[in-house]
């Protein structure tokens, strides 16, 4: 009878799982025009988050799935996005079939960002070494609302994903729409993804403001890593074309005469390693942005870090990175959560998942 | 010992239950002046939500109850209200006695809305067939803050409810106050409610802005349904009087020369059915608004839908509705969550409760 | 096998505990210039809240800890702070060692507020008797973001705490920083704390707005209570110096010719008792603010309350307080959640923790 009571209770709770990550530490940034700054920062290695998710078995290999995930700042308790969107990280509901794959509706990750954070970057798009600022992965290149995503089942290590996000503008079905797809291979030591993201940047007419026809943003990324056991090697190559294909650096943060603009035509390369050392892992990467526009505003970044695990769920870390801007480029060393303000940054912190 | 560990854990969790609903699909609206639009929409059948609730047994048939419930949009992750109120759907605490009934304080549903969604409308105030736009149930007619609600116990199928919400305006205790009550009967196949809602719309003086004396909004609704097993029949009759007694349609959405205004004196009728068919239910309704003002801006709506259950907690659905406006009325086909932008709408989607 | 299923489920849940408090009641305030007002108020005795916290045992007496805590209003469902910060009450992550103490990073309580609410005030900084308005405990004197807190282990009843919060202003490491410390003794019937809080109020240059050099706010508090069993006696003495060292009362709420300003040099005293009576406790306090500036705007407050427990987690309460302002002082009777609008207030309500 007592066990029966628990069964009811456990059953009541089992429809939803609460999960999350709290990551905080100290960040020292220098080389910015405003001077050095030391901050308590949330989400250095990965954005702090709180989420609710569930899976319901519907029988015959079919299940209903959902997730609602907030990005939060553990340094000041605020929601971690400029629009105070509660579940800014993820919000979706859908069906998943073992044989046919899954179809989900809502606010979801792009294939572009997943490939970058899960395969391309030894720093997982976090810490001082994050490649987010040099590879064009910010804003809608990371997540997109009103998206329909189909993910195929995995067959012999291969799988594929398709994303289509509606622009929802009356009278113009393509304005603001976003398309993405990914071809993935993961088997044994090899993990590889080829992904594409295409975002229409037209804005429809609103009242007396006329419609604005703009370029599309087109991003392609090849991400590969291979686990040689003594070292895991990482390689990534990307092309970024069109408006806003790079994150806009903090305006004039370096006091350049000409404000740096994000490149509208660039090629990005990353070479990185993760090396087991002692109880943890040494991470290192070299990232390079080759601006193909007439401005030729290239940049390169070196990064080094160490992750020290205290348990499967908790770790401490240190990381350092330095960026070199050319011809007035204004890229900064950031982390998973902030674009940063300087060309050098040091991190030390703790992350705990639950 | 292992079981002991669960008992502690289950006990720690048992004070609060997490629950919710994620509902999303595609909505195609047409007939609006801006042209057709196709959207990923959240809350088509019922607003997507995440809630926390608890009941504590205090002995002698008395218990303490609370609920905190957010309305959310699973299409973009945002809170689903214009003021970003975290627990905009419900927030209350109170006491519940088996013999004496319950008394709760906080942000709560009106009897008017509950009767409409729970008894009057076969679409449950959701999907394209929602009667929300034609019956006057929006804003404070749905939920009201600073409310005290008494709900009687059920005796021979009869029960009653009283709501009084304070206006909280210094020096004028009636400005902004709201009153509601309901007489309910539910026994066997018959479910009937007679409800009344009266909202004072005065605003007190603020600084140099003088107090404004306005009409009251008065809404009366008789809602009845009867389950004949082969078909469940629905009937509703309402009178709406006073300012804002109808939801304001999207201004000029249809490009009428005179912007349509919500009727300040109207009678509304709904006739509907829910018919078990195959694994699911066919829903249909005819809703009519009779504007008694000199504008005589009447409207009628036809709606048809099918709910296909995948489990007790998950279903898929399709629905279609068409509205006919007369004399420049500007009512739109909406759903549970949106007022809509056109006079025709088609829905297809999935809803999952947890 | 069924038990195994629960074990997985219980384990999945055990990483995070949901907790909270819902407190709501009626507040009648009078003596304000705008006239009397009766309100449904949330957080009269203690701010209503919803929190998520966890502890992970890392072995060797070390654990990882985190908390994310929202302040909410159960009367209207809104977040209970002007900036809509989701986890405005607490947000931190850190490590705790049985031998070495704990170190936490994030948004945290000041030692000043904890001593006042946990030791100094028989009303626990809540109800009409709250000493928050007369003792200088509002805003950053209560909680501070970007804070590092070290708390020592308890040795023979003694413990200590240190807080350092970064101002995070580029080029000026002291602008906006906050320092706090506390010396605590708790053994047998005696509970005593000596705490200090020092907040730098400089603001750095932003664009063309030059840096502003301002005083520091310095607050010292000695808080003592002693449990004589038949009565628990409370005593507190505080000095408040510098800008904004007192909460700013509602501007001109009493219509004084000269708007009352918070004292920049004051001494505060509280004498209080908590007396077991019947099933509950009678609370009473006398609070006095001695303004040492030339304005000499002193104030005194009398308060009386009764807490009636329905269970360990649920209670009902009544409280009344009256304040006397001198020389144009504008202090109001508040409660834990509101500063109040009058010089008299009556509370009746219910609080339920989960």
TrEMBL record, chains A, B, C:
It is found in: Cell outer membrane. InterPro entries: Gram-neg_bact_OMP, Gram_neg_porin_domain, Porin_dom_sf, Porin_Gram-ve, Porin_Neis. One of its GO terms (molecular function) is porin activity. Residues 2-327 form the Porin domain. Its main location: membrane. Keywords: Cell outer membrane, Ion transport, Membrane, Porin, Signal, Transmembrane, Transmembrane beta strand, Transport. The keyword Transmembrane applies. It holds the Pfam family Porin_4. This is Porin. It comes from Pseudoduganella aquatica.
